Amino acid sequence: MSIEVRGLQKAFGPVVVCDHLDLDIASGELVALLGPSGSGKTTLLRIIAGLEVPDAGQVLFNGEDTTHTDVRQRHVGFVFQHYALFAHMTIFENVAFGLRVRPKATRPSDADIRRKVQELLQLVQLDSVGHRYPHQLSGGQRQRIALARALAVEPRVLLLDEPFGALDAKVRKELRRWLRRLHDEVHLTSVFVTHDQEEAMEVADRVVVMNQGRIEQVGTPEALYDTPATPFVLRFLSDVAPWGEGFVRPQDLTVQPHAGEGTVPAVLAQVLTAGPRTRLEFRRADGGGDIDVELPREQVQALRATTSLRLGHTLHLRAERVTRFQG
Ligand SMILES: Nc1ncnc2c1ncn2[C@@H]1O[C@H](COP(=O)(O)OP(=O)(O)OP(=O)(O)O)[C@@H](O)[C@H]1O
Questions:
Q1: How many domains does the chain have?
Q2: Is 43 in the pocket of ligand 1 (CB under 6 A)?
Q3: 233, 258, 289: which is the final residue of a domain?
Q4: Is any atom of ligand 1 closer than 6 Å to the C-beta of 319?
Q5: Domain of 40: which CATH number?
Q6: Residue of the nearest CA to atom 1 in ligand 1?
Q7: Do 182 and 277 belong to one domain?
Q8: So what's the ipTM on this one?
Q9: pTM given for the model
Q10: What is the helix, strand, coil percentage profile of the chain, to 5?
Q11: Considering only CA atoms, which residue is closest to atom 7 of ligand 1?
């Protein structure tokens, strides 16, 4: 099911939260809404869901205006950050819930419900926990069950609001990959909200970067990285420093012992190694502020053979690539 957002406008009092938004989401796409806190991501998701009414504009599902369709008629599945499973029900019953509460005429038989729930538990790779209660699962497992529960009613669209926000970094990473694989299997049009650029870039087919109620750019992770449309997008996706009339990323700088053409002198302030990459923090000697360089660890080792990496030592930075914006 495709989703089209047309001229969407929403304000809370004087604060414009969605400022004439236009967005096309193709059927089967996995799209991330990415932006800082307060940029309007959740409000846009809630309007798509039908949980919030826009002041103006439309949301179309498969070309059909749903702006005034009741949330229950939209057939959307939700997963929220704190998606409370029913504590007094088994995992099996939690997943079955949406099917059991259907009106009799459309309710599947008990045998069909059992088969369906079992299939979903397999899909989220938790088929052995159906008899347990929510408190007997880890946070990551509970979110997978929340997803199975959302999928049980065969939604036309899946909406996820910071689904992994409450989990620790390692589990988050696992669930990201898992969501990507699940989406590749199920191909359900899905929109998820995140403020974590790594999460958006790793999981989504396309990323919508939002800032103060506006869409700054929509593109594939590669396109956003290679050709950011605005300084905001570049800054939000990478830890850039100003360089002449443009910006430079930590991984686009090299370090050399002597001054050369286009180099900038900088004083080494800190060396931090995290896994295979090393971050060298510098202070520009020309008063240009702090600037970080990120190099593969082997390159730093090679550099050490010829150059002192003593803190306080002055070295020379060269930008291999500078991102500039028109006007
Ligand atoms: N029901 C409401 N009443 C008044 N203001 C609201 C309401 N919902 C959201 N806002 C305001 O709208 C702005 C955008 O909120 P929204 O939740 O859409 O942003 P967000 O990008 O999802 O941020 P976060 O990542 O912090 O959730 C914020 O300034 C918020 O305080």
A1: 2
A2: yes
A3: 233
A4: no
A5: 3.40.50.300
A6: 12
A7: no
A8: 0.92
A9: 0.88
A10: 35, 30, 35
A11: 12
